[in-house]
Protein backbone atom coordinates (compact mmCIF):
# COMPACT_ATOMS: atom_id res chain seq x y z
CA UNK A 1 0.00 0.00 0.00
CA UNK A 2 1.12 3.51 -0.78
CA UNK A 3 1.18 6.34 1.72
CA UNK A 4 -1.45 8.85 0.60
CA UNK A 5 -3.30 11.84 1.99
CA UNK A 6 -6.94 12.52 2.68
CA UNK A 7 -9.03 15.38 4.01
CA UNK A 8 -11.08 15.41 7.19
CA UNK A 9 -13.42 17.83 8.92
CA UNK A 10 -14.34 17.60 12.58
CA UNK A 11 -17.82 19.10 12.36
CA UNK A 12 -19.56 21.69 14.59
CA UNK A 13 -21.43 19.10 16.66
CA UNK A 14 -18.11 17.57 17.72
CA UNK A 15 -16.24 20.84 18.31
CA UNK A 16 -19.20 22.15 20.36
CA UNK A 17 -18.83 19.12 22.64
CA UNK A 18 -15.03 19.53 22.88
CA UNK A 19 -14.32 16.25 21.06
CA UNK A 20 -11.52 17.48 18.79
CA UNK A 21 -8.86 15.61 20.75
CA UNK A 22 -10.94 12.45 21.10
CA UNK A 23 -11.69 12.32 17.37
CA UNK A 24 -8.07 13.06 16.46
CA UNK A 25 -6.91 10.30 18.83
CA UNK A 26 -9.20 7.83 17.04
CA UNK A 27 -7.81 8.91 13.65
CA UNK A 28 -4.24 8.52 14.90
CA UNK A 29 -5.09 5.20 16.52
CA UNK A 30 -6.24 3.99 13.11
CA UNK A 31 -2.78 4.67 11.69
CA UNK A 32 -3.36 8.13 10.25
CA UNK A 33 -1.01 11.03 10.91
CA UNK A 34 -2.19 14.65 11.07
CA UNK A 35 0.08 16.65 8.74
CA UNK A 36 -2.03 19.83 8.78
CA UNK A 37 -4.79 21.04 11.07
CA UNK A 38 -6.60 24.27 11.78
CA UNK A 39 -9.73 25.37 13.57
CA UNK A 40 -11.84 27.70 11.44
CA UNK A 41 -15.28 29.24 11.28
CA UNK A 42 -16.59 28.56 7.79
CA UNK A 43 -18.40 31.39 6.08
CA UNK A 44 -21.57 30.73 4.12
CA UNK A 45 -19.62 31.25 0.88
CA UNK A 46 -16.95 28.74 1.97
CA UNK A 47 -19.53 26.10 2.90
CA UNK A 48 -21.57 26.65 -0.25
CA UNK A 49 -18.44 26.34 -2.38
CA UNK A 50 -17.21 23.25 -0.58
CA UNK A 51 -20.58 21.48 -0.85
CA UNK A 52 -21.43 22.83 -4.33
CA UNK A 53 -21.76 19.27 -5.66
CA UNK A 54 -24.90 18.97 -3.47
CA UNK A 55 -26.41 22.34 -4.46
CA UNK A 56 -29.48 20.78 -6.14
CA UNK A 57 -30.18 18.33 -3.34
CA UNK A 58 -32.97 19.07 -0.86
CA UNK A 59 -30.59 18.95 2.14
CA UNK A 60 -28.12 21.52 0.75
CA UNK A 61 -29.36 24.56 2.71
CA UNK A 62 -29.58 22.62 5.97
CA UNK A 63 -26.08 21.21 5.43
CA UNK A 64 -24.62 24.67 4.82
CA UNK A 65 -26.45 26.09 7.86
CA UNK A 66 -25.11 23.28 10.03
CA UNK A 67 -21.53 23.64 8.80
CA UNK A 68 -21.48 27.38 9.58
CA UNK A 69 -23.20 26.94 12.96
CA UNK A 70 -19.91 26.68 14.82
CA UNK A 71 -16.20 26.14 14.36
CA UNK A 72 -14.82 23.13 12.53
CA UNK A 73 -11.36 21.56 12.46
CA UNK A 74 -10.05 20.87 8.98
CA UNK A 75 -7.21 18.37 8.71
CA UNK A 76 -4.94 16.69 6.22
CA UNK A 77 -4.34 13.08 7.20
CA UNK A 78 -1.56 10.86 5.88
CA UNK A 79 -1.15 7.10 5.97
CA UNK A 80 -1.30 3.91 3.98
CA UNK A 81 -4.40 4.04 1.78
CA UNK A 82 -5.51 7.10 3.76
CA UNK A 83 -8.93 7.59 2.13
CA UNK A 84 -10.08 4.03 2.83
CA UNK A 85 -8.51 4.00 6.29
CA UNK A 86 -10.22 7.27 7.24
CA UNK A 87 -13.58 6.13 5.89
CA UNK A 88 -13.32 2.90 7.87
CA UNK A 89 -12.63 4.67 11.19
CA UNK A 90 -15.35 7.27 10.50
CA UNK A 91 -18.04 4.62 10.10
CA UNK A 92 -21.32 4.78 8.18
CA UNK A 93 -22.90 8.19 7.60
CA UNK A 94 -25.87 7.13 9.69
CA UNK A 95 -24.46 6.42 13.16
CA UNK A 96 -27.20 3.83 13.73
CA UNK A 97 -25.58 1.78 10.95
CA UNK A 98 -21.96 2.46 11.95
CA UNK A 99 -19.74 -0.31 13.28
CA UNK A 100 -18.88 -0.37 16.97
CA UNK A 101 -15.75 1.61 17.76
CA UNK A 102 -16.03 3.99 14.81
CA UNK A 103 -16.08 7.77 15.27
CA UNK A 104 -19.70 8.09 14.23
CA UNK A 105 -20.88 5.20 16.40
CA UNK A 106 -19.08 6.65 19.41
CA UNK A 107 -19.59 10.41 18.92
CA UNK A 108 -22.28 11.28 16.33
CA UNK A 109 -25.55 12.79 17.49
CA UNK A 110 -27.54 11.99 14.34
CA UNK A 111 -27.25 11.32 10.62
CA UNK A 112 -26.96 15.10 10.09
CA UNK A 113 -24.74 15.86 13.10
CA UNK A 114 -22.39 12.95 12.47
CA UNK A 115 -19.20 14.56 13.82
CA UNK A 116 -16.86 14.09 10.83
CA UNK A 117 -16.45 14.42 7.07
CA UNK A 118 -13.89 12.53 5.04
CA UNK A 119 -12.95 12.50 1.38
CA UNK A 120 -14.46 9.68 -0.68
CA UNK A 121 -11.63 9.29 -3.22
CA UNK A 122 -8.01 10.25 -3.76
CA UNK A 123 -9.14 12.72 -6.44
CA UNK A 124 -11.62 14.43 -4.14
CA UNK A 125 -9.08 14.41 -1.31
CA UNK A 126 -6.70 16.48 -3.45
CA UNK A 127 -9.49 18.94 -4.33
CA UNK A 128 -10.71 19.23 -0.74
CA UNK A 129 -7.21 19.66 0.68
CA UNK A 130 -6.47 22.45 -1.80
CA UNK A 131 -9.76 24.14 -0.90
CA UNK A 132 -8.63 24.73 2.70
CA UNK A 133 -4.83 24.47 2.75
CA UNK A 134 -1.86 26.03 0.99
CA UNK A 135 0.97 23.59 0.31
CA UNK A 136 3.13 25.50 2.81
CA UNK A 137 0.66 24.62 5.60
CA UNK A 138 1.08 20.87 5.08
CA UNK A 139 4.11 19.43 6.81
CA UNK A 140 4.99 15.85 7.24
TrEMBL record:
Cofactor(s) the record lists: Mg(2+)
Residues where ATP binds: 11, 59, 87, 93, 104, 114
Every Nucleoside diphosphate kinase-like domain range: 3-140
Annotated GO biological process: CTP biosynthetic process; GTP biosynthetic process; UTP biosynthetic process
GO molecular function, one term: ATP binding
GO cellular component terms listed in the entry, alphabetical order: cytoplasm
Subunit-level organization: Homotetramer.
Name listed for the protein in its UniProt record: Nucleoside diphosphate kinase
Organism: Sandaracinobacteroides saxicola
Originating gene: ndk
Amino acid sequence: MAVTRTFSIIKPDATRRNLTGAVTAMLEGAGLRVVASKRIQMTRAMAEGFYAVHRERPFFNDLVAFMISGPVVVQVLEGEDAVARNRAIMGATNPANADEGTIRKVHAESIEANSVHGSDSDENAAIEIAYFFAQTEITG
